[in-house]
Amino acid sequence: MIDAGSTGSRLHVFKFRRNSEDDITLVSEKFESIKPGLSSYADDPDEGAASIRGLVQIAQEVVPVAMQRTTPLALKATAGLRMLPEAKAQTLLDKVQEVFEASPFLVRKDSVVVMNGLDEGLFAWFTVNFLIGALGSKEKHSTKGALDLGGGSTQITFSPRDKETLRSSPESFVRPVTIFHKTYMLYVHSYLGFGLMAARLRMMGMETEDINRRSVKGSLRSACLPADFRGAFEHSGMEYPVSGLPEGEAGFGACWAAALAMVSRRIHQPDEVRQEPFYAFSYYFDRAKESGMIGEEGGSLKVSKFKQRAEEVCRKPLPEYPFMCMDLCYISALLQEGFGFNPNNVLMLRKKIDGVETSWALGATFRMLS
User: Fold this and answer.
1) Which of 125, 129, 136, 297 keeps 20 to 30 A from 348, CA to CA?
2) Confidence band, pLDDT 50/70/90 cuts, at residue 130
């Protein structure tokens, strides 16, 4: 399974043991990643396909030759391609399909697609709960919620304990899912344009429809950047000159206001998130680790810690991470003012669970096998 994200492409080679028709055990995972993301090649689709060819070749080295013809290969693209003009996205997909069909793996007509944002949330929730052993459990309310923050979009998924959550939520946010002969009613939604990299651009003044589509004149300026900062920000194959504001105009207060403007009244707030246990991964994990709040193995953090650390970093920037003030302000605003988490809610931040990447890829692979 190849995850073609907005900031990079990631290969997951899963090895399973089938104990019976309904009993599959995950044995191991081989993981590799490359940058930039496939959407960066919107104007050079042949080069984009070549980047994926390298990942396919790695998969060939991992999967025994005798099993390659019966091993399915798939690529699912996420927000980066969703935000491209449709014709450019389709050309990239067609070129990758050609690479797949030239490989020794089992390839179907729908092996290379842009994935629906809701499926991204559902599959990530499956991955987390499969890895912690919560699926199929007889214990009531054994599952945990999943928060995924990518470059172009963000997803929230959980199984409500309170039926009022299901009744009061927008109809499109509720999905029944049957897993291992058990049906779960899930609250799931994907917010396109609310991923971390897209948020950076919007906090610096770009509109969602302009991201990935046009260059800018002059420099994008932000109160979230160090006052003396002059540099470039690259996203989806486009490079944007960026700079900080003068002393007195920059800092936490102004940056927090920009983050609030991004999320206020734009994100549904299910009351139940204040009691629901959640795993958070992708950029939630990365920024918590890079800012020194957790170690390599992850950890548990109160939601309030993101805002607290944002204030510290905005006051005393981290030279190696000039966007950290912006990123932590946005993450904090998204969690508290967007989704409505209580500052005292505790999130479990993990990059891996039992040695397997916390992402939607495992869930999507199970769906493919079924």
Assistant:
1) 136
2) very high
